[in-house]
Amino acid sequence: MKKLLLLIMFMASLNVFAQDVKITGAVKDAAGNPVSNASVNVKSKTVGTTTNSNGTFSLNTSGIKLPFTIVISGIGYEQQDIVITTPVTHITPLLNVKTVMLNEVVTAATRVNQSSLQSPVSIEKLGQRAIKENPSFTFYDGLQSLKGMEAVTSSLTYKQVNTRGFNSTGNSRFLQLVDGVDNQTPGLNFSVGNLFGASDLDIESAEVIPGAASALYGPVAFNGLLSIKTKDPFKYEGLAVQVKSGLNHINDLATDSKHLHDFALRYAKTFNNKFAFKLNGSYLRGTDWYANDYTDISASTPADKRGPNNPARDALNIYGDEVTKNLPGIGLVSRTGYEEKDLMNYDVYSLKLNGALHYKVTNDVEAIYQYNYGRGTASYTGSSRFDLNNFVLQTHRAELKGSNFFIRSYMVSENSHDSYNTRSLAQFINRDWVQDLNGKVVSPDKADATWFDRYAAAFGGTIPGVTPNNNIAARTFADQGMFMPGSAEFNKSKDASIHNYGLSGAGVFSNSKFYHTDGQYDLTKAVKVVELLVGGSFRKYSMFTNGSLFDDKTNRIKINEYGTFLQAGKKLFDDDLKLTASIRYDKNENFKGSFTPRFSAVYTVAKTHNFRASYQTGFRNPTPVDQFIHLNVGPITILGGAPNNSADLNVYQNSFTSASANAFQGAVGAAIAGGTPPPTAIAQNKDLLIKANVPYIRPEQQKAFEVGYKSLINDKLLVDVNYYYSKYTNFILNTVVLNPNSPVLGADGKVNPAAAGDLGSGNFHLYQLYTNATDKVSAQGLSLGLTYLINKGYILGGNGTLSSFNLGSANINNIAQYNTPRYSTNMTFGNANVAEGFGFDVAWHWQTAFDWYGTFTSTRPGRVQAYSMVDAQINKKIPKANTTIKLGGSNIFNKYISQAYGSPAVGAIYYLALVFDSPLK
Description:
This protein is mainly β and about 900 residues long.
């Protein structure tokens, strides 16, 4: 207690050596017009405010010793520094117009503030001006215009972003932070886009590091980092409201045009420059994009015989038709499935609520508590099409930060609520109505076999009134009694399966969470010889899915991991050369520890020409899902690669490769259709089968080299070019195997005829295993970005990226797939103030075609066609009303495009938005 009293007395005594200073003023531009919402901050302190609609402000300080410097800045204006020397000061600064800050301050590249021109690695940034003028329907959609950025749309409310290849619809190799908080869901282990992120009104900036960032940010930042920063209530006070309404599904053959709405509100207030709070709320609602590609992708049917009349048809976005059986004299037959539109909830929404309390302990130290609540519905393309229905994500964040340190703790929890797997759902509905030949509905466990018996009987001519040897007639007979979509029976069966979790239903249940603490300290002032930064983190996963995603009904899954890093920097040769070295050590309790170093050099010539080179490393621990998922999705079980996750299944030791099984089943089916008896067909083709050799999972590794050049020429032209080369080992991937009831190999070491017979008779189970790539691969890329400031405020920007994947001698079935177009380009053109408050912005994106591999199609390729799309907006600013009217559209030429095979085709969104933003002061 005595020590505490002494500390309080010491802190109070600090004010003895400082004076209360009151600064007032009016900020205007060079033409004499007031600048609203300009930031007025004390340099190197956490003290600041903003101007009101008339450009005036009042700032009270205490505990700051004279003289000190205040920094005044506004969107579209050059920063101005003013030294304060007297206790009462009135200032009238004039800010010079600068349409865009080409040399912005960035933080993510080194975890400390620095010029973007002198970043040691490639970095992209969207500042406030770019976010406000963004022509896309949401800020997050506009990220695709950044150099090297890739985007995949699974849903109206869910877009996934990535950089530098190996893209996926659920990207656990790319870290997304919102105010330093990992925005991933604990059960999925990746961020669901901006479904649970920040409101557009509250976003101050977004920074992207393309490529390996593990040296500073740990295992999730294997492929890159997106760091979103929200607005500080001390700097951004007042009320802001956005009302946005739009249309989509225009000229959509699947449905009529639909309305969508996006409402957002932000309010922030400060008290005596010591305490501040902010409240945010946003709500987006609309009709999701339809996944309605009914292409037959049956792996067991030759390509020239696929189509609507194929008895073994497996349509891409029809589910339930994956259940198949070889019928004597007929060949392979699939069950009749349901279209996705009858299974998925396309009425999607995103609700985001946020509240934060900020308290300045001193002028250098600030305490923050923040709570985020997100709830929404989205469609997600994984091994199936999943409906994340009424999914909830909550975060609690407590942070103490100063000018040279921070310590942050947060908790992220999820509740999957009514989420489900549409493929499993279709199969379970299909087992609720099947009748035997006497017209009696059979139990679900006998339904599939009974349906095939009905089909065989009708095809064989034993059913009166049914045309024999006719697959269409046989299917019609077998489908008698099938629940029609929308009927009471269909809806009852659907609802029962959605709320039935685990092996007996389609529901996905998760109440998982993780706890995270991280911090860093800048020791530069103490050390002085070098710039020195240290930090570390600890994370604890606590998973609970009650057996629906993991085998955790009785044994809860808990995983601890920690990491620590050190970064040192030194300037040489009159500060023209900056050398930086970083190293991080991370340890997951289930794997060996990993060191990830990074070395970089930046050399500045003639102040504006900056050459950089770096060696970067990345690693990724298998996520909890990678290790322990145990999910039955109908004909296939997804199984994590931790040894104790499959101890009683014998699947890693006793299975056939899917490629060999497909060849075997195709050959057997053709032979049976040609009249060969099934036992003979199986015996003749058994040697096509190959035993799978799948290792248990371990961390993946990356080594990357990058060189680049960045320059600002005559304050008009920004040039940014970079080349990278990356090598990957132990890449985590999925492989599909077939696990027969009998041993795969006989005593002679050859394929066991009994195991081959199991595949022919259906006595096997399909598994999708998590493992590592056995082969090494590499990737390289070249990017060029140009931004030019034309006279009168016009801005022209463009970038292009060449991405190249080198398979080398690797087997394409043994490595993670690149899923990235070879060429992609972006162009932007705009002006924030053409005349009389009018502004506009146009963004164009184009990319080449490529093959997409994903677990949705059991890693079989599907073509993503080349496409281009244009986003555009025009706006009118009404300063007296603090309002902006914005008319715009995403993909304005309404070309329906699919960005991942199996995901929906995305058309245009046309919208009208009103944004009211009124600073308090």
